[in-house]
Amino acid sequence: MPDPLSRATIDLVKATVPALEAHGLTITTRMYERLFTNPEMRELFNQSHHGETGSQPRVLAQSVLAYARNIENLGVLAGAVERIAQKHVALNILPEHYPHVAEALLGAIGDVLGEAATPQIRAAWGEAYWFLAEILMGREATLYRDRSAAVGGWAGWRDFVIDGVTRESEAIRSFVLKPADGGAVLPHRPGQYLGFRLDVPGHGVLKRNYSISCGPNPSSYRISVKREASPGTPDGAASSWLHDHARPGTVLQAAAPAGDFVLDQASEAPVVLVSAGVGLTPMVSMLEAIAETTPDRPTWFVHGARNGRLQAMGEHVRALVDGHPGLHRKVFFSRPETDDLGAGKFEFLGVVTADWLYANTPNATATYYICGPRSFLDSIAGGLALYGVTSDRIRFEFFGPTEELLQDGREAA
Prior knowledge:
- By secondary structure, the chain is α/β, with parallel strands linked by helices.
- The chain folds into three domains: about 5-150, Globin-like (Orthogonal Bundle), CATH 1.10.490; about 160-255, Elongation Factor Tu (Ef-tu), domain 3 (Beta Barrel); about 270-395, Rossmann fold.
- Helix content is about 40%, strand content about 20%.
- The chain is built from twelve helices and twelve strands.
- Strand 11 (about 365-370), helix 12 (about 375-385) and strand 12 form a beta-alpha-beta unit.
- Helix 2 (about 15-35) crosses helix 4.
- The protein starts with 6 loop residues before the first helix and ends in a 16-residue tail after the last strand.
C-alpha cells in the first residue's frame, strides 16, 4: 500500500475540481494525443474507443473528476479500481507503462490550463497519480501471479487455435479456442472475458476483449463475437476480420481470463440473467454453469432481441433450460418477422423492462445480472433500483470503453 497522500496534495487536488469540470475532456483528449505519439503505448489501447466518437477521452475525463472529488474517500471507488485492474491484466499492461501515462497526463494538464497549472498543482497531481498507480500495480501483480501459478494458467499472451466456428445469427459467430501447446486452460469464472492481441492486415495490432460464452472447463474457451459496423472502420476492424477470415486452424493470441462481473456460484439465491443483443454472451456462460452444477437453483434467463435472424444461441439456451424445472427462459422480440410467429422463438413482443422483471421474477431475493448497451443497462438497473432492489443485488456489465472508468460512489461496469 502506498504512503498516504499529504494534506497539501489532497487540498490542491480538490481545488482543481472546478477546472476539471470545465476542461476535463480537453485535458484527456490532449493526454491521448501525447500518449499516442509512442507506438508502443498506442498499441495498448482499443482505438475504436477513440477517433470520431471520442468515448474513451470522455470516460477518462469522468474518471479523473471522480478521483478528484473522492480524493479523501477513495473507498467508494474500490469496486471500480478492481475493474480497472482486471481490464489492465487482460491487456497485459505492465509497470513500465505507467510512467508514459503520467508524463502524458501531467503534460496535458499544463498544455490546457496554462499558467493556472502551477508547479504546485502539477506536483500534487503527480503525487495523486502515482498513489493510484501503485494501488493498481500491486493488485495487477497479484492477479498476474495467481493466474500464472494456477493449473492451466499462464502469463502474457498464449497461442490458441480455433477448433470450431458456429454461425449463431446474422451478426454473431462463435469460435471455440484450444491451446496451441495442447495443454489445459484455466477454468474461468462464469461472466469473465479474454483479452486478445490480433494482428489485422491493414490495421496492425488491435487489442480487444471478448466475453467467454461457455461454462468453465479445463480444455477450451468459446467466444461469441458480433460483427461491428464495417471492416473499414476502427470499431469494425477486429470483429469483421474474425467473421471473414478466422477459420478452424487460425491461431489467436489471448491473455488469461479476467473480469469481476461473475456469477456468485456459492450463493443459493435466485438468479435473473438479463441481456440484450450480444450482451447474452456472459449470460450463456453463467447459464451453462448453473445447468451443469446447480440446476435446481431458481434461474431466469431473460433476453431481448430484434427478431429471429438476430437472436443468437436461442436453441442452445432452450436445450439448457429444458428438463430443469428451476430454469426459466423468457425471450422478447421487439420487431418479430413472419417466420418468428408461432415458431416458439420468443414469448413476449416488445422489450425487456424493469417493470416486467419486478413483476415476474423473485424481486425480494434474486440477484440480477444485467448486460447490454449503456441505455439498456441504465433502464434496467435504474428501474430496479427505483423499485427498491438493493444495489448489492444489481450487478451489471456493458461493452464499451471502461478500462479507466471511475464513477462517484458507483461501480461502473
